[in-house]
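Help needed: design a sequence for this.
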C-alpha cells in the first residue's frame, strides 16, 4: 500500500507541477503579447514622427535653396538697379518714368 500512496502523491505532484508550468508559460505569453502591442504602437508613432520630420526637412531645404537664389540675385547688377529705382527713385540719364495715378 505504501507504493500505491507514493504513486498517487507523485502523480499529484506531477499534475501540480505541470499546471504551474503551464500557468507560468501562459502568463509569460500574455506579458510578451502586451509588450509587443505597446512596442508596435511606439514603432508606428516613431514612423509618423519620422515622416513629419522628413517633410519638414524638405520644406527647409527648399527654403534654403530660395534663400541661396535670392543671395545670388542680390549680387547682380539687375538687383542693384531695381533697388535704386524702387527705393531711391534713381533713373538712367534720358530714361522716362511713367507713374500710375490710381488715387
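Sure. Designed sequence:
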Amino acid at each position: 500500500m505504501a507504493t500505491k500512496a507514493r504513486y498517487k502523491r507523485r502523480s499529484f505532484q506531477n499534475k501540480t507541477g505541470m499546471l504551474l508550468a503551464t500557468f507560468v508559460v501562459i502568463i509569460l505569453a500574455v506579458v510578451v503579447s502586451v509588450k509587443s502591442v505597446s512596442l508596435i504602437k511606439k514603432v508606428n508613432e516613431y514612423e509618423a514622427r519620422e515622416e513629419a520630420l522628413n517633410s519638414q526637412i524638405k520644406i527647409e531645404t527648399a527654403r534654403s535653396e530660395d534663400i541661396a537664389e535670392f543671395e545670388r540675385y542680390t549680387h547682380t547688377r539687375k538687383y542693384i538697379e531695381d533697388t535704386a529705382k524702387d527705393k531711391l527713385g534713381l533713373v538712367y540719364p534720358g530714361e522716362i518714368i511713367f507713374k500710375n495715378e490710381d488715387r
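Helices lie at 2-74, 77-88.
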